[in-house]
């Protein structure tokens, strides 16, 4: 039996429409949600990501501002820009596009953003609140995964979720989201990583398997329990001379191998990817609501 394909594009569009309604309601109350994205340097991938975020803001009714800084700008200059935005009451979300140039400390920069405007959900204060179950701004990619699962008609409560990967961007916040009480979580959670011995022994127990390791097509059918929900967070370029671009995009899951074992699976592209920007729109609306006590 071939797995149900979880349509990330469709679900992301639903969420963006919900965010659009939230924004329209805030605008009626005299609050114009505003997201500022800071781009340092000329990284082509970063420029593309920023462009997609700006377009999403336009479609959602969020005011967006893009601040571009030269790659040789100092860390102090970036900090000054963040301080200015923190103090600006008309700005509700601040996002510094990563990666930063090597001479800048990403951790220090992240900590400089006001937690109330940290729409990436990376500030230590928000990380701490998430871990103990206090409502806060949470990282966009892992926040979108329970939406993908539950909006596809799959129950999460009581399920065993196995996360492969322990990054601060996906793996760790994913664990903290899944373990909380609530219909879109309430899982028993296992985290596996590069130090895990006999990895497949754990992954084969998963009702929900989330792969976020950045290794192309790492997860095979031998690692997946029959009927499991498989969420592929990875996006990797693999050389392919037969492709017009000379490469193709694949996830951390060997999709063709796993799709006949899994009960449901996300494709790459078109699975988790579209959710990240959709959840950013939701976070920006939420930040505006919280800042103005609505």
UniProtKB/TrEMBL annotation:
Q: Which GO terms describe its molecular function?
A: methenyltetrahydrofolate cyclohydrolase activity; methylenetetrahydrofolate dehydrogenase (NADP+) activity
Reaction(s) the record says it catalyses:
(6R)-5,10-methylene-5,6,7,8-tetrahydrofolate + NADP(+) = (6R)-5,10-methenyltetrahydrofolate + NADPH; (6R)-5,10-methenyltetrahydrofolate + H2O = (6R)-10-formyltetrahydrofolate + H(+)
Ranges for domain Tetrahydrofolate dehydrogenase/cyclohydrolase NAD(P)-binding come to 139-289
One GO cellular component assignment for this chain's record is: cytosol
The biological pathway it contributes to is: One-carbon metabolism; tetrahydrofolate interconversion
SUPFAM superfamilies reported for this sequence:
Aminoacid dehydrogenase-like, N-terminal domain, NAD(P)-binding Rossmann-fold domains
Q: What is its EC number?
A: 1.5.1.5, 3.5.4.9
Which residue ranges does the record assign to the Tetrahydrofolate dehydrogenase/cyclohydrolase catalytic domain?
6-120
Q: Name the GO terms of the biological process aspect.
A: L-histidine biosynthetic process; methionine biosynthetic process; purine nucleotide biosynthetic process; tetrahydrofolate interconversion
Q: Which domain of life is it from?
A: Bacteria
Q: Which UniProt keywords apply?
A: Amino-acid biosynthesis, Histidine biosynthesis, Hydrolase, Methionine biosynthesis, Multifunctional enzyme, NADP, One-carbon metabolism, Oxidoreductase, Purine biosynthesis
The protein's matches in Pfam families, at most eight in alphabetical order, are given as: THF_DHG_CYH, THF_DHG_CYH_C
The residues listed in the UniProt record as binding NADP(+), with positions renumbered to this chain, are 165-167, 235
Q: What is known about its subunit structure?
A: Homodimer.
- What's its job? Catalyzes the oxidation of 5,10-methylenetetrahydrofolate to 5,10-methenyltetrahydrofolate and then the hydrolysis of 5,10-methenyltetrahydrofolate to 10-formyltetrahydrofolate.
Please report which protein family the annotation says this sequence is part of.
Belongs to the tetrahydrofolate dehydrogenase/cyclohydrolase family.
Name of the protein in its database record: Bifunctional protein FolD
What organism does this protein naturally occur in?
A: Arenicella xantha
Q: Which gene encodes it?
A: folD
């Amino acid at each position: 039996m071939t797995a149900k394909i979880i349509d990330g594009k469709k679900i992301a569009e639903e969420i963006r429409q919900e965010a659009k309604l939230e924004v329209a309601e805030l605008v009626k109350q005299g609050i114009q949600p505003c997201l500022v994205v800071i781009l340092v340097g000329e990284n082509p991938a970063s420029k593309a990501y920023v462009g997609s975020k700006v377009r999403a803001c336009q479609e959602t009714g969020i005011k967006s501002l893009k601040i571009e800084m030269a790659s040789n700008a100092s860390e102090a200059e970036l900090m000054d820009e963040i301080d200015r935005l923190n103090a600006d009451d008309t700005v509700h979300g601040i996002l510094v596009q990563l990666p930063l140039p090597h001479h800048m400390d990403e951790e220090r920069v992240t900590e400089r953003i006001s937690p109330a405007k940290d729409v990436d959900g990376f500030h230590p204060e928000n990380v701490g609140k998430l871990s103990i179950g206090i409502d806060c701004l949470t990282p966009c990619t892992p926040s979108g995964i329970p939406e993908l699962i539950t909006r596809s008609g799959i129950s999460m409560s009581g399920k065993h979720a196995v996360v492969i990967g322990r990054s601060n961007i996906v793996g760790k916040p994913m664990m903290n989201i899944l373990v909380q009480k609530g219909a879109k979580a309430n899982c028993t959670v296992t985290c596996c990583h590069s130090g895990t011995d006999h990895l497949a022994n754990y992954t084969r127990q998963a009702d929900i398997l989330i792969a976020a390791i950045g290794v192309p097509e790492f997860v095979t059918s031998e690692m997946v329990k029959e009927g499991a929900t498989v969420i592929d967070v990875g996006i990797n370029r693999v050389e392919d001379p037969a492709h017009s671009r000379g490469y193709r995009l694949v996830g951390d899951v060997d999709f063709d191998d796993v799709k006949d074992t899994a009960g449901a699976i996300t494709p790459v592209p078109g699975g988790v990817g579209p959710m990240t920007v959709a959840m950013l729109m939701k976070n920006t609306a939420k930040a505006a609501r919280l800042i103005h006590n609505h």
